[in-house]
Amino acid sequence: MSAQKDRWVPSLFLLFCACSIPTSGSAGLQQEQSPQHYFSGLEAGKASLAFFTPRVSPGAQPFLEQIESSAEALQDYGISVVKVNCPKEDASRYCGRENALRKAFLFRGNRLIREFPTDALFDVNSIIANVLFALLFNEVKYVETLADLENTENMLKGKSNMVFAYVPATGTAEHRAVMEAAFVYGTIHQFVLTTEAAVLKATSHDDPDVSSAQLLFCHCQRATDPAQPCRRTALGQPLTLLNIHRHLKLMAAPLVTEVAEDPEKVSTVHLQLGLPLVFILSQRETYEADRRTAEFVAWQLLGKAGVALLSRDLVDLNVLHRSNVALKTPDEGTPIQYLVLEDTDEVITLVEDKNKVKPIQEDEQEEEEENDEDEKENNNQDIQDDQVVEAVSRDKKRELPLEQILVLTEENFHSSLSEAARTVVLFYASWEAVSLAVLRSYSEVAAHLKGTLGVLLSRVNCWDWPGLCSQENVTQFPAIRIYKEGQRPVTYDGMWGTEELSSFILLSRAPCPLKLATMDEAEGYLRGEFPSELSSHPHTSLLGVFSTATSEAREAFEEAANILSGHIRMGMYLEDDALTLSRKYSVSPPALLLARDRGRSVEGIALSKHISQDMVQMIRYELLDIFPEITVSNLPWYLQLRKPFLILFSAGDISQMESKEMLKLAKGRAQQAFVACWLNLEKTPVGHGILRTYFSTVPSLPVLLWVNLHAGGQVFEFPSEQSVTEVNILSWLEKLQAGLEIPSSTLSEEDWKPPLPAYDFLQMMEPSVPELSLHASPQPGDTPAQHPPQSPGGDPAGGDPASLEEPSQESTALEGGSPGRGLRGTAPRLAARDKQGRRHSEL
Amino acid sequence: VGLALYAGSLCAVSGATFLYHDYCVIGAGPAGLQAAYFLQQAGRDYVVFERSHAPGSFFALYPRHRKLISINKQYTGKSNSEFNLRHDWNSLLSHDRRLLFRHYSSDFFPNADTMVRYLEDFASLLKLRVQYNTAIIHVTLEKNEQAWNGHYFLLTDQDRKTYKCSSLLVAAGTWVPNVVNFPGSEYVEGYETVSINPEDFAGQTVLILGRGNSAFETAENILGVTNFIHMVSRSRVRLSWATHYVGDLRAINNGLLDTYQLKSLDGLLEGDLEDLAIVKDKKGKLHITLRFYLENRNISAGIDSVTLPQDELDNFATRAPYDRVIRCLGWKFDFSIYNRSLRIMPGKGNIKKYPQIKPSYESRGTRGLFILGTASHSVDFRKSAGGFIHGFRYTARAVHRLLENRHHGVPWPSTVYPITQLTNSIIKRVNEASGLYQMFSVLADIILLRENATAFEYLEEYPAGVLAELETQTGRKAHSGLFVIIMEYGRNFSGADKDVFYYNRAVGEAQHAWQSNFLHPVIYYYKRLPTEREMRLRPPDWPLPRPDAIHHIVEDFLTDWTAPNAHILPLRRFLENCLSTDLRNFFAESCFLFAFTRQKLPPFCQQGYLRMQGLVGSQELRHHAVQAGLLQDYTHTDISGDRPPDSHDGSQDQLVGDRAIPVRPLQHLVNAKDE
Question: Domain named TXNDC16 N-terminal: which ranges (chain A) (predicted)?
Answer without folding.
Answer: 30-132
